[in-house]
Amino acid sequence: MKVAIAGASGFVGQALIAELEKNHEIVALSRGKKKSEKIEWRFCDLFSLLDAERGLQGVDVGIYLVHSMRPSARLTQGTFNDFDLIVADNFVRAAERCQLKQIIFLGGLHPEEAQGLSRHLRSRWEVEDVFKKSKVPYTIFRAAIILGGEGSSFHIMTRLVERLPVMLCPRWTNTKSQPVALHDVTASIAHVVGNSEAFEKVYDIGCSQPVTYKEMMKKIARLLGKKRLFIPFPFMSPQLSTLWVCMITKAPKELVKPLVRGLKTELLLNPQNKITVPEKNFLSIDEAVKEALQNYDPQQTPTAFREAKKEGRVVRSVQRLPLPKGKTAEDVAQAYMEFLPKMNPGFMKVEVRGRWIHFCLRLPFVPLLVLEYSPERSWSHRQLFYVRGGLLARKTERGRLEFREILGGEAVIAAIHDFEPRLPWYFYRWTQALVHVFVMKNFGLYLRRKTAFNSEARR
């Protein structure tokens, strides 16, 4: 089969390529330019639906390994869980349009209690829901920490053990989870590719015995031949834990902060979601740690630790807005065009002429920003406007504003992608960028008032 892997440049993606290329034709999707004689690399920015459609063209099965915890532009406004929803939604829409036979998603284990979840764990839950609502048959894998020599979580624990003879252990180090060996992950995914018996199934994968993070670090210390003293220190806050981990391991704060906040939650396997892979037994925790250490290079920097590629002066801004009951993204886009002329900030006025929106200075009449509605790339659940220039914006092919329904119509996302300002960067950062957030915040209030007014009118 022809299998596309989104997130192919990550450590799981690389291992999966090695596993699947034995029996399948591989298409590796990446934002970076790569070449290989054995597999086909396609450029694909999953924030672009058009890129996603091109990336999945002619593909039978799509494997989704993407997580948007690191910034992907010079300036990002919004939260990574909203970024996650956009790229997952694009992948699903593209998979449906390209008529894929199966989507495979590698997400996170679900705790029994949904209350009090960290943003990181909630994001994994929301993304899983996107795939479950797809028209393409799905197979979902849930895992806690994936133990591999190049894995970011394993690197963090190993670096702490290597660099700290005495370790103060916060409460989260006593939280239990069931990690899984990298080889077990790739073998499980390989088993379900094109397997109709795995369609519409959710599988929990991991070692058979629960283990705490402190116990894992003790196992790492023993295998490294290092004597380490672990002292309980329950008074350390998540903020202090994040600072401490970043300082010792050199891992980026954007990665560590959501991970630390999620470590307070036990991540254990649900026996009902067990998978059986022929001629395959999952490694024990001791075997998994030993195998990961054999492939661990202390001089190597994991992909997740590296500075994310931030293209030139590109801006990405995402806000989650309320979606009135019974309304669509098309209704929200129409409300946006009604709202803008009423906003009346004094020095500026907004004119809507057919498919064109002009943000202008009042006196003299100078176009500051010009948007063009694109009916060709818009549907009732997704509305698209292209940035066509103006005094404050560079004219580009990809700069755009979209309104997109998410979570089955529970909310709508307003997102600016690939926008390039004309203003000097520092001046833009503290003027125009803040104005955009202000406008979207007030538009959200406008939607809420409009919803409340319609509700009163119906009564």
Short overview:
This protein has 13 helices and 21 strands. It has 459 residues and is α/β, with parallel strands linked by helices. The chain is globular.
List keywords for this structure.
459 residues; 36% helix; 8-stranded mixed sheet; 2 domains; Rossmann fold; single chain; alpha/beta; Alpha-D-Glucose-1,6-Bisphosphate, Chain A, domain 4
Structural commentary:
- With 459 residues, the chain is α/β, with parallel strands linked by helices.
- The protein has two domains: 2-305, 3-Layer(aba) Sandwich (Rossmann fold), CATH 3.40.50.720; 315-458, START domain (Alpha-D-Glucose-1,6-Bisphosphate, Chain A, domain 4), CATH 3.30.530.
- The protein is built from 13 helices and 21 strands.
- It has helices at 11-20, 49-55, 80-97, 119-132, 152-163, 182-192, 213-224, 238-249, 253-262, 285-294, 329-343, 425-429, 432-458, and strands at 2-6, 25-30, 40-43, 61-64, 75-77, 102-108, 138-143, 146-147, 166-169, 176-177, 180-181, 201-204, 211-212, 229-232, 315-322, 348-353, 356-361, 366-373, 382-389, 400-406, 411-419.
- The strands form five sheets. An eight-stranded mixed sheet has the order 5-15-21-20-19-18-17-16. The chain has a seven-stranded parallel sheet with strand order 3-2-1-4-6-7-12, sandwiched between helices.
- β16 and β17 (356-361) form a beta hairpin.
- The chain is globular.
- The N and C termini lie far apart (56 Å).
